[in-house]
Write a structure and sequence with these properties.
Blueprint lengths: L9 H13 L4 E5 L5 H5 L1 H11 L8 H9 L2 H16 L3 H9 L6 E9 L6 E9 L3 E3 L1
């Protein structure tokens, strides 16, 4: 799952991870958003992108121009969604708490953050796979 885990409440998130463990299936969850001022600040350029690229989106629609430039609903929705996503993203210690409450024999969890390829905003991850029942970070 990429940049979607923050949409789930803790009980739902736990159920998703528990299901993977019960089915003895691997699962990888990655989040680019995070609760940090720098990441939240990056949502402004994200919201400005439609202003730059909308004229080149095909098929052409007048409504897209209207809601991007005249009534900037599209950039404002992107800004709002980005900020809310950042604020809802689980922190590594919250993920560890969720994983710690799972009942899974012979299942391995890795939870942490790694810098992305550009070296800026780290990507939070949680990876689970059948193996020793261990939590590493």
């Amino acid at each position: 799952m990429f940049t979607s885990f923050h949409h789930f409440e803790p009980t739902e998130a736990r159920a998703i991870l528990q299901n993977a463990a019960d089915a003895r299936q691997g699962i990888g969850i990655f989040e680019v958003t995070r609760r940090a001022p720098t990441t939240i600040a990056l949502m402004l350029p994200w919201a400005i992108l439609p202003l730059l690229f909308t004229p080149w989106i095909r098929p052409f629609r007048w409504s897209r121009l209207l809601f991007t430039y005249v009534f900037p609903a599209i950039p404002l929705v992107l800004l709002f969604d980005g900020i809310v996503s950042c604020l809802r993203t689980y922190r590594p210690h919250e993920l560890r708490e969720i994983v710690a409450k799972l009942t899974a024999a012979e299942y391995h969890w890795d939870v942490g953050e790694r810098p992305n390829s550009a070296g800026r905003v780290p990507i939070a991850y949680r990876i689970g796979h059948p193996g020793a029942n261990v939590l590493t970070s």
